[in-house]
Design brief:
globular, 5 helices, eight-stranded mixed β-sheet
């Protein structure tokens, strides 16, 4: 299985138009609960394979972080509710994947009610992101997010990123879906 290694802070330079510092801190807050740096995720791609992976649809991603980020992350659980932490951490993981593996994967926030979290304007795609700490929720959550992203008002094709931050299984299901004609 191919292994990639990146720092979570890489998303800051890769997406300069977005404020993602809080997402990096929340991702580290979750990852550091069960892992020292780097934290390993199994990535399962469905419906596509990132070009840099030479056709592979499953790979291991090691995510590391800076000490400064870890210091901030130690305060997150006293500041934010767990659902917010999960969602922002999932956004950080999606931003990292798009920054490193999808050319022109710049993200733009969608309006509430657009049935997507982000637009990928250069790709003319929608992106829906979700996070959980329960690996049993992944299949259901993934199905729900596919239906949601494909009902976006621009009728663009869509990506879905569902991140599981459980102690026993750190997994990201990353899929691409085309609109039915």
């Amino acid at each position: 299985m191919k292994i990639v290694e990146w720092e979570i802070e890489d998303i800051l330079a890769a997406h300069p138009d977005l404020y993602l510092e809080h997402c990096t801190v929340m991702a580290v807050a979750l990852m550091s609960r069960h892992s020292i740096s780097p934290c390993e995720f199994t990535i399962e791609c469905e419906g596509f394979s990132p070009l840099a992976l030479d056709g592979e649809t499953r790979f291991l991603m090691r995510v590391s972080w800076a000490e400064q980020t870890a210091i901030k992350a130690s305060r997150v659980w006293r500041t934010e509710q767990s659902k917010s932490i999960l969602e922002r951490a999932a956004v950080a993981m999606a931003a990292l994947l798009f920054a490193q593996l999808i050319p022109n994967g710049q993200m733009r926030v969608a309006k509430q009610g657009d049935r997507a979290d982000y637009w990928l304007p250069y790709l003319q795609c929608a992106l829906e992101v979700s996070g959980t700490e329960n690996h049993r929720e992944i299949p259901r959550r993934h199905r729900e997010k596919i239906a949601q992203v494909l009902s976006n008002p621009l009728q663009w094709n869509g990506y879905v990123v569902v991140c599981c931050f459980s102690e026993s299984q750190k997994l990201i299901r990353w899929s691409y879906h085309e609109q039915e004609i």
